[in-house]
Design goal:
The chain is mainly beta. The chain is built from no helices and eight strands. It has an eight-stranded antiparallel beta barrel with strand order 1-2-3-4-5-6-7-8. Strand 5 and strand 6 form a beta hairpin. The protein is elongated, with a radius of gyration of 15 Å.
Length: about 140
C-alpha cells in the first residue's frame, strides 16, 4: 500500500545556524492511500534531538498511526535527515511492530522546504511543512 500526504514539524526552539537541543513535534496526514484496506490516516510524533538549519542527522522514531477504518499501526524506524539548499529530506525505513500491517516493512520520505532560508541566520525556523509518501511492503 502507498499513501501520499503532508507532514508539519514544529520546533520548540526555532532552528538557527547554531546546533541546539530542541523538541520536534510532527503532525502527519496520510491521504490518497491505494492498494490496501484503508484510504487515509493521521499520526502525531514527538521527539527531542540536536538540530540546526545545517545539521543532518539520524534517529530512531516510533509512531502510532490511526487509520480511517478505526485500526491503528505502530511503526519503528531509523530516520536519516539530510539538510541541503534550504530543504530537509527525511527518509524513515523500518517495520510495523503492531496493529494493521504488522510485520510489514515501510519507507517514508518527507521533503520539507524552509519558507524563509534567511531566517536561519536571524529569528530561526519554527515550523516546516512538506509532502510525503509512505509505502508498506510484505
Amino acid at each position: 500500500m502507498t499513501c501520499a500526504g503532508q507532514s508539519t514539524q514544529t520546533y520548540s526552539s526555532p532552528l538557527t545556524l547554531r546546533t541546539q537541543m530542541t523538541e520536534i513535534d510532527a503532525d502527519v496526514t496520510y491521504s490518497s492511500c491505494v492498494g490496501g484496506p484503508v484510504t487515509a490516516g493521521t499520526a502525531a510524533v514527538a521527539s527531542t534531538a540536536q538540530a540546526s538549519c545545517l545539521l543532518s542527522g539520524s534517529s530512531t522514531v516510533t509512531q502510532q498511526t490511526s487509520w480511517n477504518s478505526g485500526a491503528t499501526s505502530t511503526t519503528t524506524g531509523d530516520t536519516i535527515a539530510t539538510r541541503t539548499l534550504g530543504q530537509t529530506i527525511v527518509v524513515t525505513r523500518g517495520t510495523v511492530t503492531a496493529g494493521l500491517f504488522a510485520d510489514a516493512q515501510f519507507t517514508q520520505t518527507v521533503i520539507f522546504v524552509h519558507p524563509d532560508p534567511l531566517a536561519c541566520s536571524t529569528t530561526g525556523v519554527g515550523t516546516v511543512s512538506g509532502p510525503l509518501t509512505i509505502t508498506f511492503t510484505g
